């Protein structure tokens, strides 16, 4: 999927501020809502998807009861986005999990385990953790990821196989940070 990075970078740059942080009636500040961001990102990626592309972009594809992908932390998972050729295990290109910059350790750990499992057992060539939202620095989150990986001893979390991308501000493209 030669054009994936270009589609990914251009698509994230088109996600508007109201999708990164949702305004809520009665609240002074908007809040992060992962689903809202993911649905808009899916829309932006699909609108740039090449016609007649062999690869499909899917949102929250349910892998429950998949005959080949089960066990190994893959039961009952629905990754935020998948890029694959449905029905062809050799066509598993990318799994994307999305988290706001304010994500809890539990949420990050779950997604890192999911990404590692899809790489190890689901034969996905790329696994991406997309962090979105404004922060002064992404380093504290990257340090949390490293600590989780160290504490896990590589059993269920392998950050060497996970690309970490940061979409800091609406109207700006995502950038790879890890």
What does this structure look like?
The longest helix has 17 residues, at 105-121. The chain has 5 helices and 6 strands. It has one domain (4-176). The model has no long low-confidence stretch (mean pLDDT 90). It has a 6-stranded mixed beta sheet with strand order 1-2-3-4-5-6, with helices on both faces. The chain has helices spanning 4-13, 17-20, 34-46, 105-121, 139-152, and strands spanning 56-59, 81-84, 92-100, 126-132, 162-167, 175-176. By secondary structure, the protein is α/β, with parallel strands linked by helices.
The major pleated sheet works out as:
6 strands, mixed
- Tell me the fraction of residues in β-strands, as a range: 15-25%
- What overall form do the CA principal axes indicate? globular
Please give the count of helices: 5
Structural class: alpha/beta
How would you summarize the topology of this molecule?
Layout: H1 4-13, H2 17-20, H3 34-46, E1 56-59, E2 81-84, E3 92-100, H4 105-121, E4 126-132, H5 139-152, E5 162-167, E6 175-176
Parallel strand pairs: 3-4, 4-5
Antiparallel strand pairs: 1-2, 2-3, 5-6
């Amino acid at each position: 999927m030669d054009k994936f990075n270009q589609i990914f970078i251009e698509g994230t740059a088109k996600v508007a501020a109201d999708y990164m942080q949702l305004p809520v009636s009665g609240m002074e500040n908007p809040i992060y809502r992962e689903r809202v961001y993911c649905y808009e990102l899916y829309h932006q990626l699909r609108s740039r998807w090449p016609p007649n592309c062999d690869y499909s972009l899917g949102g929250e594809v349910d892998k429950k009861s998949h005959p080949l992908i089960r066990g190994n932390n893959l039961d009952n998972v629905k990754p935020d986005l998948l890029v694959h050729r449905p029905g062809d295990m050799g066509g598993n290109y990318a799994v994307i999990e999305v988290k706001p910059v304010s994500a809890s350790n539990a949420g990050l750990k779950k997604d890192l385990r999911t990404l590692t499992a899809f790489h190890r057992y689901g034969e996905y060539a790329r696994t991406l953790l997309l962090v979105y939202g404004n922060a002064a620095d992404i380093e504290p989150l990257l340090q949390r990821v490293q600590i989780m990986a160290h504490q896990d001893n590589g059993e269920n979390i392998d950050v060497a196989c996970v690309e970490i991308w940061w979409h800091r501000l609406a109207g700006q493209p995502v950038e790879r940070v890890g």
